Each structure stands twice: as structure tokens, then as C-alpha cells.
Amino acid sequence: MLFEALLSLIAIxxxxxxxxxxxxxxxxxxxxxxxxxxxxxxxxxxxxxxPKVMIxxxxxxxxxxxxxxxxxxxxxxxxxPVQFRKLRQGSLYYMLxxxxxxxxxxxxxxxxxxxxxxxxxxxxxxxxxxxWEYVNIRVLEARGAVKxxxxxxxxx
Amino acid sequence: MRKLLSVTxxxxxxxxxxxxxxxxxxxxxxxxxxxxxxxQSDTVSRMDVAKMVANAILTDPRLNDPNIIYVGKxxxxxxxYGYVGVGKNSAGVFLVYVNGNLAVTHAFDFDYIESMNxxxxxxxxxxxxxxxxxxxxxxxxxxxxxxxxxPLGWFGHESKARTVTCSAVGGIVGNIVKxxxxxVGWFTGPVAGAIAGSWCAFGGPExxxxxxxxxxxxxxxxxxxxx
Lengths: 156, 227
What we know:
The complex is a heterodimer of chains A (156) and B (227).
Chain A: H1 2-20, H2 24-47, H3 51-79, H4 81-110, H5 117-143, H6 152-155
Helix pairs in contact in A: 1-2, 3-4, 3-5, 4-5
Chain B: H1 2-24, H2 31-38, H3 46-58, E1 67-74, E2 82-89, E3 92-98, E4 104-113, E5 118-123, E6 128-133, H4 135-142, E7 149-153, H5 160-181, H6 185-214, H7 219-226
Antiparallel strand pairs in B: 1-2, 1-7, 2-3, 3-4, 4-5, 5-6
């Protein structure tokens, strides 16, 4: 119940930030993210944690978040070089966070706290997602068409 | 000085040896030990009790390959006459009664013979058939018992498969929140992921237990384990 309430708060926070955001892209993505989490909570309420619900979350959420991340990276690369650099930084931070979660959980598991397997797996998922982002960013950077290379007068 | 050091070292080794030996010998767990470990019995969380009951069932040599799905408190809820554990093993569905001292005193296997549409209840501890009949008759007999069972927890998450699946669910939710959160996503993503994963692994069992309480024996759900 506590976790459910916390997750609902996160979803409501995302929806509110989407509603009050003045940036159109942020508005859409926050609303979609918040509604996706609310749908997850509702589906678990309706059907419980059945294998079908879990597999659906993993397949739809996993594929969706990977495609969305890729789309966002390409869009930012084309339109906003400053944000693009922040994306690279963010993915590195995310990778580091995931790696730290993985290491701490692995140590806890070795120490006999078997439930830490949950966080161990999560840490790996975060690292994998961050790697996906980072590789996509580096590939686009290697193409060499980042606008930040342009003179300041050209970008304003 | 050297003598003092030698004596201290020897004394330390001598004192440490018994505890090392004791650590290798499995100690029996009684309700008294539990109480002394966790203080008053009222302060023991439902999950702790459920875990101990599940451990008592899992370590019983008379049950082969048990996989605990559900642990509940049996009897009037305030008093609690004992605990009931439901799960699957190679024989099919089993139901175990655990007393207040966390000792398995009754264990039953439920086998469903599909060709005859018959349920056979087998006493595992005494090795004899107790009951055989149609599923609907059996459900009619056990249904009133649900009023005396309170859910403590669902231990499907004890299986590695559920833990791994829940970690994937947490990871996905974390990635979605990270992706939509902007520059602070590297922090908000893992936090949301941890909450979602914990909800799946630890909050989920409660929901399953409640579903089970509504209908204690669902043959459709266990059919896979009965074949």
C-alpha cells in the first residue's frame, strides 16, 4: 500500500508538471509518463501481479522506453545542442547510479541479504538503459553534425 | 608485554572457537527464540512471521520440493491457533499446518485426477489417503474455513523468477520516469524504479494474499501444478 501510494504520487507529480509546463514536448512526455504509471497501478489492481501483467509491463514498457529514448536523443541532436550535451551527461550519471546500485546490492547479496537480488537486477537494467542512451548519443556525435560546433554568432 | 599479548591472543582464540563451532551447527528455531530476537511478539511484523512459517515448511524433510505460495494465520485472528501454508510441489498442491512453535504438524497433498475429475487428499506425514471426491464437493467442504484464515504474505517472491521479474518491472518503470524527467532523471528514475520493484516484490504478495483469501482453493490457478 505504501509503495503503491508513493508510485501514485510520482505519477500525479509527473501529470501536474506536464500540465503546468510551458515546453510542449515536456508537457506531452510528462503526461504520457504519468498516465502510463497510473495505468500500471490500475492494471495491477484489476488483475493482480499475474505473469501476463508482468510480461506486458516488461515488453510494452521496455520497448516503449527504448524507442522513446532513441527518438528523444535524435530530436535533441537535431534541435538543441546544449540540451544534447546535458543528455550525454545525464546518461553518464544514470550509468554511474545504476552501477553503484548494482555493486551495493551485489555486496548485500554476498552478505546474505537475498532480497537484494531485486535491486541488483534493477541496477543492471539502469546501466543497460544508460548504455543504450550513451551509445546512441556517441553514434550521433560521431556523425559530426552537432550544432555546438558552429560559431556562437550563428547560434545566437 | 609479550606475555600479556600472547595470553590475550590465546584467550581470544579460545573464546572464539565455541562460537565458530556453534555457528556451524543449525540451531532449532522456536517461538521463544523468535520472541527474544524480535522483542514482543506484537512487534514482529507479519512478513517476519510469514517468513519464519515458510522456513519451517521449506525445511521439513517430509515435503519434497515445496514452493510456498501463501502463508496465513489460522484460527480466530486475535488469538491465532497456528499457521497455514499453501504451495506447490512435485505431487501437486499441498497445504501445511504449522503450530505456534513453528513445527509442521499436518501436511496434505491435493492431487487432481483429470480423467476421473476427482480430487484426492493425501496425508503426507502419515502417508495415507484421507479423502477422494469431486472438486465441487471438496470446495463446499473447505469454503467455510476461509473465515478462519488471515493472510500473512505470499511467498511467490521467494522464488528467484519472481524477484528477477520484479527487478525488470522496477527497471522499466525507472527507465520511463528517467526518460520523461529531464535533467534530474538520473536520480528520479532509480527512485521510482526502486519503489515500483519493491511494490511488485513485497506489495504484490499482499494483493495476491487478499485474492487468495476471497477464494482459498482455485483449481484453475493450480491446474498447471496438478498435472
